[in-house]
Amino acid sequence: MTQYISTRGAGDAIPSAMAIKQGIAADGGLLVPDQIPQISLDDIARMQSQSYLQRAVTILSLYLTDYTRQELEDAVAAAYTEEKFPEGPAPLAQLNRYNDREHMLELWHGPTAAFKDVALQLLPHLMTQAVAKTGEQAKICILTATSGDTGKAALEGFRDVDGTEIIVFYPHEGVSDLQKLQMVTQEGDNCHVVAVEGNFDDTQTGVKGLFADPQLAERLAQTNRLLSSANSINWGRLVPQIVYYFSAYADLLAREKIELGEAVNFVVPTGNFGNILAAWYARSMGLPVHKLICASNRNKVLSDFIRNGHYDKRREFFRTNAPSMDILISSNLERLLFELSDRSSEVVRGWMNDLEQQGHYQIDSQSLRRLQEVFVGGFADENGTVRTIRELYDRCDYVVDTHTAVGFNVYGRYAARSRDETKTIFVATASPFKFIEAVADSLFGNGYARGRSMETMLAELSAESGLELPPSLTGLDSREIRHQRKVGKQDMLAAVTELLGLD
């Protein structure tokens, strides 16, 4: 049975249901499996004929070993309905029918048009099952920081789920207009949305501080409440993401684009390192992967780290046209550091203390070598991102959002210098409609978005591209603004106290 331990070493191993309910380790570390389960090539071959739901149960059952197979089947069936994912949770598209080397893993066909839906439609079902399995009587309060997409996906996933309440904090000027509208118009009696004056790192640090606040924990206990998270610091958020890497590989096999055992590359735009870490777990389980290309925007702390092993957040913070990656503290990296250091919690604690106290840390040469064996880092600035959207549309008649464009930009330079001919899967993390201003300027000319309404631009992009506008993005301008609270980063505790009635 797979148990879960803290990257920082404190506490006993706990079962998966407890890990999901708890969200974060008691010592402030992240919960990781005590062993990484293995899967054979024969198992992967069998996935060719399976549905996505069957593939999900296969992978989830290896990690969530205290859930019965029937419980997992029920959770997956409830999460991945045709109504929520009309194209399926993770369809694979070939970019050009004359080129078998480039494929797109489209993860944005869910209710909020972003890849977070794949995990956050499932997490509420895993969470409610976890509450029942552990005999928990307290009400679960989900506390989440978002750089744009996690917030709306979490709100939609937990909306009106019995026994839960959710508070989402987002950086006031750090998300796109459309992302903000999606959140502040959110319906649901148990949903709360709060803007924070600061950037995402301020917001995420504030939320982590709330989890570690003993006085808040005491007041929650007095009112029979328990904190958990919908961020990817929660293993229940991360484990569903492992599935779609196996699914993409199985789809290539089924289409006879690769031979069984042939390695592929994955290109992943990432800020908090969760999505690409899921790919690393898939590789560590036995999925044939050659390279993981980690694509950053101008906040290139991860790109620099992969190059020299020095993680340094002491740098200028940039607001870019790929705002979901405007992050300087990548929380999920701690899980990878634990593995790179031979699961040494002492070493990880040292690095994390250096990051908190000095703003940077340097990993050892052996850990850096292990990192570079798998990961390739790179970044794209705003101009390169805009140019890539246009170039890809001209070349393949395919429109991507700004984050996915960062991935293409970084991969293009990697492929040119490495001459790597490995078949490559690009992870598309959001619908292009979610970042309409930047995409419209890319396709129709710089400045095109200025003075045009959001509804006009959405309609024009749909007409130009032939893409159907996601229902969740229609009529946002006319929806009621339900959440207008804004606080300073020092006032997040007061906001939680008031919203949960803990005064």
Structural account:
- It is a single chain.
- The protein has a six-stranded mixed sheet with strand order 4-5-15-10-11-14, with helices on both faces.
- The mean pLDDT is 96.
- The chain folds into two domains: 234 residues, 3-Layer(aba) Sandwich (Rossmann fold), CATH 3.40.50.1100; 138 residues, Rossmann fold (3-Layer(aba) Sandwich), CATH 3.40.50.1100.
- Strand 10, helix 12 and strand 11 form a beta-alpha-beta unit.
- It is of the alpha/beta class.
Strand content: 15-25%
CATH topology of the largest domain: Rossmann fold
**Main sheet properties:** 6 strands, mixed
Overall average residue pLDDT? 96
Defining traits:
503 residues; alpha/beta; Rossmann fold; 2 domains; 6-stranded mixed sheet; 21 helices; 45% helix
Write the layout of secondary structure elements.
Elements: E1 3-6, E2 14-15, H1 16-22, E3 31-33, H2 41-46, H3 52-63, H4 69-79, E4 92-96, E5 99-106, H5 116-120, H6 123-133, E6 139-145, H7 149-158, E7 164-171, H8 177-184, E8 191-197, H9 200-211, H10 214-222, E9 225-228, H11 235-254, E10 264-269, H12 274-285, E11 289-296, H13 301-308, E12 310-312, H14 333-340, H15 345-358, E13 360-362, H16 365-374, E14 375-379, H17 382-396, H18 402-418, E15 424-428, H19 436-444, H20 454-465, E16 485-488, H21 492-499
Parallel strand pairs: 5-15, 6-7, 6-9, 7-8, 8-16, 10-11, 10-15, 11-14
Antiparallel strand pairs: 1-2, 1-3, 4-5, 12-13
